[in-house]
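Record type: monomer structure entry
Structure origin: computed from sequence
Chain ID: A
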Amino acid sequence: MSSRPSNITVIGAGIIGLSCAHDLSEAGYEVTVIADHGPGDTVSALAGALWFPYHAAGTGEVVERSLRRFVELAALGDSADSADAGNVDDFTDDVPPVQMRTGVLHERLDPPDRSWVAPVVKVLGEEAVRPVDGGVRATLPMIMTSRYLAWLMDSCRMNGVAFQWRTVTSLDELTGTTDAVVIAGGLRGGDLLGGDDAVTPVRGQLMLFVNSDENPLTDWVVDSDDPSQLTYVFPREDEIVVGGTSEPGSWDEAPDQETAEAILARAEALVPELKELPILGHGAGLRPSRETVRLERVEGYGLPVIAAYGHGGAGVTLSWGTAERVVELVGEL
């Protein structure tokens, strides 16, 4: 009879990998994260990142689980008493990494896609979503990406998670060194499993603006007029994330001037206040897209393997639900 696994290796240090490592360590496993990039150099660092199930078909339970966790984290940030915060001491910082923010989703499709509304109402109540002229006004978790990734990394380390910064080229390298492997390697996930060519890059580009000290923007805006030119304005405390694009099959990670000008024109039409704000910089990244998220045990290797990749532009949104499901899958080994 095989024994319960105790040592788990997670490949990938983006939002999915760190969330899985966090929850596995919380469940009592000895966890090692192996990655060729730190979280600040992953596509996760470029995320907007408003909780919203963008192109996340078939992930209903994962979506709801993640929403509940982010709402709980936002409540910790709002609380003056951090006694119940466990190992999230840095939530006492001036800027909590998760906050509930209100904004408007402009709807252009007829009928509009409101599949995301049901989990929001279930978790937050009907007052969290209400129709307005031309769309929907909602209150959702917004993740302050750089602060959030730093908190998540610190929380993993406090739980005893070990980190190795190197590239795994084959799962054979890990045979005999670990009881099970979780593949959260984004675009490389399919390669590590030997030919899952369903994983493709979807290029996204964004801009960063300085948020005003005197009259800061707080409400987010999303316009889904054209899926390939999704426009969003996500104000944080000291910066505003503005995007974006969705270019399937592109491997170009360099910001493009013409694309930036198009993003700027669309964003300023939505939020005229941007015209008065300085631009901090530009960014581009490759979302690890798949027709369906791969979240399952995979057979045929020399050790137990769990796939957790293909989240596309919904990596942050699905992160905690993915982590909880990974813990369940490891427990079933």
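Annotation 1: The radius of gyration is 20 Å.
Annotation 2: Confidence is low (pLDDT under 50) at residues 80-90.
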